[in-house]
Write a sequence for this structure.
């Protein structure tokens, strides 16, 4: 089966000689929901914009559903929908006109039914006849997402779609993204809200200084690099208990707290069963992608 | 795959863009044409006398129409592009579109041509209320009008891509285009100016455009219409390939 996206040996050097992407390789399978994470300036937007042909690459190759961006430029663009990080909408037209125009650019003549569907799912129906200038920031964000979808792209790219938007829109948006993904669309997203990425994405790539430093199933990253935090309250403040080897924890007046990784978990639970009677309350959190992210991106300093 | 429907949609967007603000894009040139007729027709025209064998007002009409077309086709593309830059539309609303550089240029310049032709027609129809004239060479007129709005649409396109702000676009308009237009024989015949200046006027490309336009409308010209027509059409072709090339290499709009 043709991959949804194949990026190989991709390099980008800007005119000021900034090496934004360093030999990036990435393959995304059809139907994946994939997150690209990384600190600011890591090269996420550069990568996405090269895939969407908004920025030129310096070397390497990019194929979108088998269409090479150098040889089948227009077909590659047709297969893809992009929501850029910065909100921009055509100020002369109404919401409906913008979507009608955009459908036209992609060669679609009669798109009313699909446009209505998009308006409905993104909760824009009431704003449909408004001139885009009159929309609030959140409404404009919805419109940029609808625009990226007018031609039913096989690959949808969302570059920080939830930056600066309220809770309700985030909820609407992720619900819709799950629906689209459920219908078979391949989706790439970037976000700084790591719990969103952990919730949504099956696979994650972490980009730092223009290179992919980790790329794996979200679950594998959590297992391999994640730590589970725990907190316990002991029956008595002065209870003395035997500490397990290799698991660091702090004891503050009968309150124990610390964390353990996947390797240590067996040891932790064996130990826990031996002190069960001395514990009044316990809280064990699942591993968080945020911790994995911080651990990997700060690796050099730790 | 050739996305001609997409090109058509992009061209329509360029037309709707200026029609939505028709007051300033089509209404304004109508007002300025009326003002010129008030000044030259009622106040000054009768003192100037016959020019190149026709009344001054008859001489003026083709010049005014040509001037309006040049200014407005330039404005349409240059302002469209600077607006796109200003609003951050270059990425998703230009570069990511599945259109070739040639198709994008076609859409832009098509919009400029429609605006130029509309402005030209409005000025000619208004003029007809004040001055009697008939169209001497309709086909030449059409060709010249299309090529002229095309050339300045393309010129505006290149200026818009080069420009970093609206200031840059008006800079080119005010310091290059307007002087060339005003000295290009819109308001006077070069036979009216001293010999030395006349030689200088012949270096002004807009002189030939206006001259051709005058030939097409009232059969008065100071140069050879055939050479002028050839020059106009080839200038259009050269400008077109320059504009397409600029889009292809992504000059100033694609990093």
């Amino acid at each position: 089966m043709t991959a949804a996206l194949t990026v190989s040996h991709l390099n980008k050097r800007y005119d000021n000689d900034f090496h934004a992407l360093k030999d990036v390789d990435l393959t995304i399978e059809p139907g994946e929901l994939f997150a690209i994470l990384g600190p600011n300036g890591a090269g996420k937007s550069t990568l996405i914009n090269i895939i969407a042909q908004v920025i030129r690459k310096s070397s390497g190759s990019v194929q979108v559903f088998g269409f090479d961006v150098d040889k089948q430029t227009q077909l590659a663009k047709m297969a893809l929908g992009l929501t850029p990080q910065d909100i921009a909408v055509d100020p002369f037209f109404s919401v409906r006109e913008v979507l009608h125009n955009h459908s036209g650019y992609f060669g679609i003549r009669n798109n009313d039914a699909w446009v209505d569907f998009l308006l409905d799912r993104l909760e824009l129906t009431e704003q449909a006849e408004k001139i885009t200038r009159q929309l609030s920031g959140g409404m404009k964000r919805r419109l940029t997402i609808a625009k990226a979808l007018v031609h039913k792209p096989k690959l949808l790219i969302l570059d920080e779609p939830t930056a600066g938007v309220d809770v309700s829109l985030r909820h609407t948006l992720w619900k819709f993204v799950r629906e689209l993904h459920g219908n078979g669309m391949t989706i790439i997203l970037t976000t700084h809200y790591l719990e969103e990425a952990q919730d949504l994405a099956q696979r994650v790539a972490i980009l730092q200084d223009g290179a992919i430093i980790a790329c794996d199933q979200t679950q594998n990253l959590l297992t391999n690099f994640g730590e589970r935090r725990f907190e316990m309250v002991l029956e008595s403040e002065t209870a003395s208990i035997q500490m397990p080897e290799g698991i660091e924890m702090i004891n503050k007046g009968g309150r124990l707290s610390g964390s353990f990784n996947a390797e240590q978990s067996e040891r932790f639970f064996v130990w826990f069963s031996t002190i069960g009677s001395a514990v009044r309350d316990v809280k064990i959190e699942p591993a968080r992608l945020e911790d994995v992210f911080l651990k990997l991106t700060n690796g050099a300093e730790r | 795959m050739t996305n001609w429907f997409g090109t058509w949609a992009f061209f329509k967007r360029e037309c709707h863009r200026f029609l939505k603000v028709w007051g300033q894009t089509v209404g304004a040139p109508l007002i300025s044409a009326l003002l010129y007729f008030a000044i030259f027709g009622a106040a000054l025209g009768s003192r100037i006398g016959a020019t190149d064998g026709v009344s001054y007002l008859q001489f003026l009409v083709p010049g005014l129409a040509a001037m309006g077309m040049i200014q407005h086709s330039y404005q349409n593309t240059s302002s469209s592009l600077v607006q796109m830059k200003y609003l951050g539309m270059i990425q998703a609303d230009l570069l990511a579109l599945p259109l070739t550089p040639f198709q994008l240029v076609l859409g832009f310049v098509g919009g400029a041509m429609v605006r130029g032709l509309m402005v030209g027609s409005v000025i000619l129809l208004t003029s007809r209320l004040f001055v009697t004239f008939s169209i001497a060479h309709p086909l030449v007129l059409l060709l010249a009008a299309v090529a002229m709005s095309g050339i300045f649409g393309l010129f505006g396109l290149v200026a818009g891509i080069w420009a970093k702000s609206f200031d840059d676009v008006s800079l080119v308009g005010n310091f290059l285009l307007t002087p060339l237009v005003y000295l290009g024989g819109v308001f006077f015949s070069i036979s009216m100016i001293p010999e030395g200046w006349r030689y200088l006027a012949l270096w002004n490309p807009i002189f030939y455009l206006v001259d051709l336009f005058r030939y097409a409308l009232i059969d008065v010209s100071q140069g050879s219409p055939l050479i002028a027509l050839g020059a106009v059409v080839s200038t259009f072709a050269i400008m077109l390939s320059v504009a397409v090339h600029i889009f292809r290499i992504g000059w100033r709009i694609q990093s």
Observations:
- The CA atoms of residues 118 and 146 of chain A lie 6 Å apart.
- Chain A touches chain B through 38 residues (CB under 8 Å).
- Chain A has a mean pLDDT of 92.
- The two ends of chain A are 41 Å apart (CA to CA).
